[in-house]
């Protein structure tokens, strides 16, 4: 059972990650109904709803279009602040100010207490809602959770094997009891889902169906 004050984190539920988007996750529209139900339940319990939003400049290093030697979904080793990281080359997505970057209009902005933008640095990618992939910059997410005396974090959104996974792992690192609502997320690569869930369980993330989460 969830204890203390609760926050629901909506990870990157944006048009480009939903079906027909430029980086569409398969069957992603199916998460909208359970996510909306969870929002209603969390708001009824005076919990917090926070949305993360990929917000990339058009010259972002992760875009295959900005790396002439690579095709989408290939990888490339990129140096940032002295660290060499393997970067997936993505199709252009969630470019600042575009329709694809907007949070789905199926989710009422009135129900969202905070929006945390990430991926704004053109030189480094940012999967987690808490920090970029190099931990060079920390977002406002942890501060918001601490200031609102949050104890338990429920994570939903896209995609399970990238931004959702990293947000869950960081949530644990920052000291929050963390629950992944597994029927409110979908992976980019379905073959990686079991490995992703196993990794999260090994780091003390609770994996539950929305119906099993007690608020």
Automatic annotation (TrEMBL):
Pathway: Cofactor biosynthesis; nicotinate biosynthesis; nicotinate from nicotinamide: step 1/1
GO molecular function, one term: metal ion binding
Enzyme Commission no: 3.5.1.19
Keyword line: Hydrolase, Metal-binding, Pyridine nucleotide biosynthesis
Signal peptide per UniProt: none
GO biological process: pyridine nucleotide biosynthetic process
Taxonomic superkingdom: Eukaryota
InterPro entries linked to this entry: Isochorismatase-like_dom, Isochorismatase-like_sf, Isochorismatase_Nicotinamidase
Domain Isochorismatase-like: 7-201
Entry similarity comment: Belongs to the isochorismatase family.
Listed NCBIfam families: PRK11609.1
Protein name, per record: nicotinamidase
Organism: Mucor saturninus
């Amino acid at each position: 059972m969830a204890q203390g004050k609760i926050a629901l984190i909506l990870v990157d539920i944006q048009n480009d990650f939903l079906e027909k988007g430029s980086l569409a996750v398969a069957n992603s529209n199916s998460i909208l109904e359970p996510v909306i139900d969870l929002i209603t339940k969390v708001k009824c319990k005076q919990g917090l709803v926070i949305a993360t939003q990929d917000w990339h400049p058009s010259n972002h290093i992760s875009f295959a279009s900005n790396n002439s030697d690579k095709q989408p979904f290939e990888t490339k080793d990129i140096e940032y602040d002295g660290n060499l990281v393997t970067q997936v080359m993505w199709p252009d997505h969630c470019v600042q100010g575009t329709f694809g970057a907007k949070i789905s209009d199926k989710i009422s902005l009135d129900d969202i207490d905070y929006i945390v933008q990430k991926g704004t640095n053109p030189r480094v990618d940012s999967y987690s809602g808490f920090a970029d992939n190099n931990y060079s910059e920390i977002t406002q997410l942890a501060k918001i959770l601490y200031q609102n005396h949050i104890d338990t974090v429920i994570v939903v959104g896209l995609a399970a094997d990238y931004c959702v996974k990293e947000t869950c792992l960081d949530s644990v690192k920052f000291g929050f009891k963390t629950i992944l609502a597994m029927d409110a997320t979908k992976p980019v690569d379905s073959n990686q889902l079991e490995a992703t869930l196993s990794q999260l369980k090994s780091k003390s993330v609770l994996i539950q169906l929305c119906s099993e989460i007690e608020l």
